[in-house]
C-alpha cells in the first residue's frame, strides 16, 4: 500500500488532521488490516464515487476502495538535519514514504502559539525544505565518497551515480530540491534508489480557518503558497480545514452534510487532499466488478495489461492471456455488461494494452 507522510512545524494542525483523517475515515477502511500497534499510522480510503455506481450495476453489496497509509511524522523543527528535535528519527521516517504531505498553517489564532512568530506559510515551507535539503546534502556527500572509489575501480554503475551526485550537489547547495533538478528518467529512478528526501513528491495542505474554507483561494496565505508552488517547487497544494474535519468525526452523515452546507462547502478539503496525493504520485484506478464485490485497484499511469493484472495476483501477470475491458463511461451509460457487449463496447485486449483510468476489467489467464 502507498505511504504518505504528514509533516509540518509544530502547532500547524498536523495531529488534528491526522486524527481526524484516520478516525473519521477508519470505518470506511474496515476492509484493510489496521495497524493498531503504531498510533502514528492510519489507513485512509481514496474516495471514488464511481465504485458506488458500479456497485448498483454489479448488484453487489461490497465495495473495496483503494487506500493510502498516512504516517504522522512528528518532530520536525529547524535544525532537524543536525539532530535537533527528533532529528534523525524524523528523517528516517520520511525516507520510507512515497509522498510527503506538508501541513502549513494558514489560520490565525492568538490562542495557538506559532513557534516561529506570526503566520507565514512560505517561511514555514522554506524552514522544512531547508532541513530536507541539508539532510540530502549529507546523504549525497556520503555516497560520493563511496562511489568515487568504485568508479575509479571501473564500476560503470558507480560512474553513472557519481555523475548524478556531481550534478545534485551544487543544485542542493543552492537550496533547491532534488525533484527540481532537470533529470533523465534513469536519473529520477536513481534518486529514488538513493532515497533522497527532496526527490519525493510534495503536497502542501494549507490549513485554513473554518470560516475561510469556502473562499480559500482568496485567502492571502493560500495565495502565497500557490505563488510559491508555481515558482519554486515541483509540488501541488490543496486548502483544507483540519478543524472542520475533526468536528465531522462524531456527526451522523446527514448532520455532517448539513454542517458542511452551512459553511458553503461539500467537503473539509480532505477528500481533495487524498485524491491529490493519489494524483501526485501518477496513480490511477481500474475496477473489477462482480457479484462478490466491486474493487478499486491502484496502478501507475502507463502500465500495460499484464502489469495491471499483477496487482491482483502475481499469477495474473505471469499467466496473462487477455483482458476483457469496458470503460466506466460506456458501462454506466449502457447499464450492463450485456448491453455493453451488444453495443461493441466490451473489448478483448492483449499484452500491449495500456490501461486507462476507470477501466472495468476481467482477466483471462493460465494457471
Ligand atoms: P501539530 O503540532 O501540528 O500536530 O498541531 P495540532 O494538530 O496539535 O494543533 C495545534 C493547535 O492548533 C491545537 O490546539 C488545535 O486545536 C489548533 N488548530 C488546528 N487546526 C486549526 C484550525 O484550522 N483553526 C484553529 N483556530 N485552530 C486549529
TrEMBL record:
NCBIfam families (UniProt xref): redox-regulated ATPase YchF
Function: ATPase that binds to both the 70S ribosome and the 50S ribosomal subunit in a nucleotide-independent manner.
Superkingdom per UniProt: Bacteria
Protein name per Swiss-Prot or TrEMBL: Ribosome-binding ATPase YchF
Required cofactor names: Mg(2+)
Similarity comment: Belongs to the TRAFAC class OBG-HflX-like GTPase superfamily. OBG GTPase family. YchF/OLA1 subfamily.
Binding residues for ATP: 11-16
Record key words, sorted: ATP-binding, Magnesium, Metal-binding, Nucleotide-binding
Amino acid at each position: 500500500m502507498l505511504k504518505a507522510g504528514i509533516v509540518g512545524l509544530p502547532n500547524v494542525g498536523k495531529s488534528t488532521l491526522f486524527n481526524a483523517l484516520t478516525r473519521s475515515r477508519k470505518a470506511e477502511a474496515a476492509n484493510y488490516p489496521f495497524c493498531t500497534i503504531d498510533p502514528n499510522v492510519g489507513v485512509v480510503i481514496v474516495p471514488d464515487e464511481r465504485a458506488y455506481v458500479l456497485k448498483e450495476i454489479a448488484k453487489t453489496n461490497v465495495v473495496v476502495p483503494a487506500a493510502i497509509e498516512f504516517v504522522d511524522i512528528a518532530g520536525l523543527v529547524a535544525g532537524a538535519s543536525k539532530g535537533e528535535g527528533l532529528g534523525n528519527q524524523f528523517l528516517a521516517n520520511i525516507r520510507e514514504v512515497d509522498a510527503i504531505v506538508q501541513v502549513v498553517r494558514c489560520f490565525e489564532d492568538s490562542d495557538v502559539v506559532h513557534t516561529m512568530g506570526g503566520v507565514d506559510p512560505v517561511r514555514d515551507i522554506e524552514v522544512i525544505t531547508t532541513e530536507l535539503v541539508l539532510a540530502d546534502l549529507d546523504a549525497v556527500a556520503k555516497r560520493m565518497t563511496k562511489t568515487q572509489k568504485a568508479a575509479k575501480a571501473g564500476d560503470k554503475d558507480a560512474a553513472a551515480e557519481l555523475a548524478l551526485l556531481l550534478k545534485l550537489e551544487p543544485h542542493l547547495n543552492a537550496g533547491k530540491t532534488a525533484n527540481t533538478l532537470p533529470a533523465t528518467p534513469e536519473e529520477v529512478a536513481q534518486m529514488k534508489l538513493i532515497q533522497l528526501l527532496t526527490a519525493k513528491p510534495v503536497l502542501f495542505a494549507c490549513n485554513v480557518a473554518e470560516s475561510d474554507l469556502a473562499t480559500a483561494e482568496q485567502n492571502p496565505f493560500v495565495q502565497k503558497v500557490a505563488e510559491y508552488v508555481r515558482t519554486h517547487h515541483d509540488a501541488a497544494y490543496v486548502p483544507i480545514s483540519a478543524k472542520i474535519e475533526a468536528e465531522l468525526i462524531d456527526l451522523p452523515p446527514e448532520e455532517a452534510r448539513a454542517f458542511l452546507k452551512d459553511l458553503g462547502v461539500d467537503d473539509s478539503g480532505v477528500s481533495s487532499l487524498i485524491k491529490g496525493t493519489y494524483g501526485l504520485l501518477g496513480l490511477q484506478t481500474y475496477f473489477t466488478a462482480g457479484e462478490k464485490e466491486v474493487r478499486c485497484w491502484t496502478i501507475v499511469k502507463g502500465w500495460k495489461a499484464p502489469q495491471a493484472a499483477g496487482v491482483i495476483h502475481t499469477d495474473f501477470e505471469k499467466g496473462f492471456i487477455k483482458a476483457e475491458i469496458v470503460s466506466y463511461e460506456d458501462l454506466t451509460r449502457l447499464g450492463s455488461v450485456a448491453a455493453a457487449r451488444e453495443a461493441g463496447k466490451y473489448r478483448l485486449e492483449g499484452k500491449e494494452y495500456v490501461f486507462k483510468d476507470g477501466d472495468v476489467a476481467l482477466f483471462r489467464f493460465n494457471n
